[in-house]
């Protein structure tokens, strides 16, 4: 039986914090690893020890196997938990751990290798009798073969990266004329993302449910399933909302899907936590999609409905212990739903966002759990995934879980970096989701270009902003001789000008909508309770230079104090400037100086947070200047190119 006493967590963020807590609960010492970008991260503080493993880029830190192993050697860690992402599904990492005499808390390398290759895993599943989607996963990778196989399979077809995951290297093709372009694009994306451009084809199942089964195996021949999770609400094949159990699965279907998942795991001698993912068609047929040979992001919903500690079970199984229960002991109680809180701008096609977190106040309440690895002062980096927290709620039934989660999302305050919080609350409040009818086409159907712009704040929110700006720091509330002030504010919702003056213990705030009497009941450095016309409310706030962030009434707004701002004409004159929408690396330049371009034509491609983003021409005109080059790291608002009206010289 393998023995270990100190666990190195080869990850970061919320999953590193989760594993550290789970290991501590089992009595193990823990070691965190961190890059230069994460020196002040929460997971570094929570571990017993922490080791710097390299600079910010993941390839030089969290993905560097030798640096991870050296950190284990120098701290005496005799086991490694990979979390999810990064090295968690790299067979080479599991093998390297074994050679170093370190226990890898996960499946054997061969299981990782087989299931990490989509073509090979599908061949194995077909041989094992697991239902699979008709497709082609052969070694002949010529376009001619793919075209012939697509004709045999029937359109629409899905082109997928054989070594892929996370939606990268994936294209849906509805007719034969689009296949060649899809193959070319998918190969390029797969080669960049995985270093492997092999592809496979599958018949596309239109708007299915994405239902996955949690499995667990030990080294004593026991394999069980822990029910299903429904992960149908996805954006670009990235999960957004997950729940257990699925509203589309009854006990009979659960038994069939669970048996198929156990069969899949048994066919490769699987050990540890894994997830077998299926597509569930409207007629009740289900098909093997892939197997994730690690702990899933969405594991908390399974924990909440089963009462099991999946991280604790991983540690027990890695130590050679048998599972302490059998299939007949697994029972689902109540309902749990999880959403992924991401640093992104839903109103701008979900572009990832970076920057400091000025306030982080996760919601609390019965049945609410929030897994995170951030705090005030955390800097959201462009080098890693945009997910910063998971908000989860349990209820006696699905509707109670949904209500609790919607409130928890609305009550969670994060200020300083834009997030998808309002988008998540909107999904949870939609009739289609509430009815349990959402499929994988939900986001594309309702939000084809992203979420709507930030909602206009209630009238009292800019009034509060004007008051807080005028007495910034709180020193003026009881100061004799406090003078009237004029405050000009601007934000995504528009601009306004206010006059603020004292009226006894209150403030009179005058603007276009009239005069409002506002009284501060209590105020500290990040929250304020106030009264307007006998209606008392609580708001959270944070200042970032001249910008005030306010979280209130379930929304988040930013108000810049423009009272003394003089806009530079030169800056405003750059109307044809093509700017970086976020921090990232330029991976492609598609235009040359002197080229005539159309509005919306691709100028460049920027990679940030593991996603590629097309940078488009803002107008018809001529490319006057290209100031970026492939491989260049750029910051938000950096000018990449300038497009001017006029003919080519």
Give a concise summary:
The chain has 649 residues and is of the alpha+beta class. 25% of the residues lie in helices and 33% in strands.
Write the layout of secondary structure elements.
Blueprint: E1 6-9, H1 13-25, E2 29-35, H2 42-46, E3 49-54, H3 65-75, E4 79-81, H4 91-99, E5 103-104, H5 109-116, H6 118-128, E6 135-136, H7 143-153, E7 157-161, E8 171-173, H8 179-194, E9 199-203, E10 209-217, E11 223-230, E12 234-235, E13 238-239, E14 241-244, H9 251-267, E15 272-280, E16 286-292, H10 299-306, H11 310-318, E17 335-342, E18 344-345, E19 351-352, E20 355-356, E21 359-361, E22 368-372, E23 379-380, E24 387-395, H12 398-411, E25 413-415, H13 421-429, H14 431-434, H15 442-446, H16 460-470, E26 485-491, E27 494-503, E28 506-511, E29 514-523, E30 527-532, E31 535-544, E32 547-552, E33 555-561, H17 569-572, E34 577-579, E35 584-589, E36 596-597, E37 602-608, E38 611-616, E39 621-626, E40 633-634, E41 639-644
Parallel strand pairs: 1-2, 1-4, 2-3, 4-5
Antiparallel strand pairs: 6-9, 7-8, 7-9, 10-11, 10-15, 12-13, 14-17, 15-16, 17-24, 18-19, 20-23, 21-25, 22-24, 26-27, 26-33, 27-28, 28-29, 29-30, 30-31, 31-32, 32-33, 34-41, 35-37, 35-40, 36-39, 37-38, 39-41
How far apart the termini lie comes to 76 Å
CATH topology tier name of the largest domain: D-amino Acid Aminotransferase, Chain A, domain 1
Strand content bin? 25-35%
Low-confidence regions = 475-481, 565-574
Count of separate structural domains: 5
Q: What best-fitting shape do the alpha-carbon axes yield?
A: globular
Question: CATH superfamily assignment of the largest domain?
Answer: ATP-grasp fold, B domain
CATH architecture of the largest domain: 2-Layer Sandwich
Radius of gyration: 27 Å
Domain Biotin carboxylation: 3-448
Keywords: ATP-binding, Biotin, Ligase, Nucleotide-binding
Organism: Sphingosinicella xenopeptidilytica
Protein name: Acetyl/propionyl/methylcrotonyl-CoA carboxylase subunit alpha
